[in-house]
Amino acid sequence: MKVDELRVLEADELTGRMRAARRELYELRFKHAVGQLENSSQISKVRHDIARIMTVLRERDFGIVATLVADALEPVTVPQEAEPAEAVEAPAAPAKPKRTRKKAEETS
Asked: Is residue 54 part of a domain?
């Protein structure tokens, strides 16, 4: 499953795929624990699919829309609502005193 395929889906379709992928991951982990799983790389593939779905959902939450530029055919992210960031300076921390080594007193 590719990210471009996920970006064209509706939100309810994405949540349905998320549920299905999590269920599949649960079943794969169960099979792995019992010893019935032949190909353990399936677990990582399903985990990557879940991460892709979550990424698309979070992009939509933040209002980031990925569009394709016709000339370059590369995905470009464009924020829907751009707000100017205000520069806030943190208060300066007081300078710490330098630590010096004390010479050990020699006792005879």
From this structure: yes
